[in-house]
UniProtKB/TrEMBL annotation:
<keyword id="KW-0539">Nucleus</keyword>
<dbReference type="InterPro" id="IPR036322">
    <property type="entry name" value="WD40_repeat_dom_sf"/>
</dbReference>
<dbReference type="GO" id="GO:0031080">
    <property type="term" value="C:nuclear pore outer ring"/>
</dbReference>
<dbReference type="InterPro" id="IPR001680">
    <property type="entry name" value="WD40_rpt"/>
</dbReference>
<keyword id="KW-0853">WD repeat</keyword>
<keyword id="KW-0677">Repeat</keyword>
<dbReference type="InterPro" id="IPR015943">
    <property type="entry name" value="WD40/YVTN_repeat-like_dom_sf"/>
</dbReference>
<protein>
    <submittedName>
        <fullName>Uncharacterized protein</fullName>
    </submittedName>
</protein>
Amino acid sequence: MILSNLYNIKSSPAESLADFEPQETSQALDVKLRKALFTDSIGEQVVWLGYGAGKCVGLSRCDDLSPDEPFRELNRVEASSNPMDICRIKPNQFGVGFGDGTLRIINTDKKKIESVAKIKPLHGSCDSRVLSYHDDIITSGSSNGSIVHVDVTTQKVTTYGKFHGAVRSLVSFAGGKLLASGHGTGQIAIWDLRQPPFNSVNSVVPSKKPLDAITALSTHPAMANLVSFGTDDGAIGFCDVRGASGTLVPTSFDVATAAITQIKFDAHSGEHLLCSSEDGSIVHWDVSGIPSTEYLSVGNSRQAAWLAESLSDWVKLSSLRSKCFSAINSIDVNNTTVLATSDIGTLLCYTGLPFPKSHQHR
């Protein structure tokens, strides 16, 4: 394993006025909300996780977005343990990780939540804290540092091993051959999944501050080597992991005053990115205006604009939601619509974003 402490801290991009006017619709529920996802590409239903006193998995309809009841609840299933994370397997099918370490597969295609399978605790007596899905495999990370994967079809569980510190975020890339895990110790670990034993082949500490936990990870839809990360201290960064066996030097920007909770690239163009934070903000990043001369390498091979040295000079930042007293715990994107959850139990929806439209859902 190679451990790198190199990083490249850039001046934070300046926020600009948005050249679009997103419309916000919201509705308060009677539970704290951890995460919500659209159930399919149509965007008529959302599945959400309630935690704390009202721990449950819920399903709501959102196609009308009327001011009185924009999210009409269809079904709610109480849980014995806090749901921690949810990942989309396919339209209307999801994996849900729980605080007791169990994993459930659920369906939502009949306007109600149906449990398809319950898989034993994956991490001993510890939680299934974060999930990632790729090609019929759900990967689960725990607060005890362990990482396992579950075959959705056979329900076979395979252990990767343990890493230093709690697993706070996961994302697979390179066609599922590699996995990035973010940890409470401030490290990003790269795992080689091509054949057993599944070892961590590299590790990088991307923040200039010690123990700045990696709270969010995302990969570019067209460039499997580009990983974006968010930290507990509010930084967003980008890292080229093409040379996963060598030293990784990420670039990061201080953009929020609290932990980054989620990062989402636009799945259809890769020129837009959204990030949410515990400071209550949702920020839209747009690199479509960066001239190609700013990200062409010496050999004329195209690099992602997100890795350009002058990114902070050209990227356009605009707020869908400004800093507020309630944290934003998650975001999901469906075409030009953004779904978000707040810590005080509010579902929020933003429409009219400048994303290229497509009927495909990631």
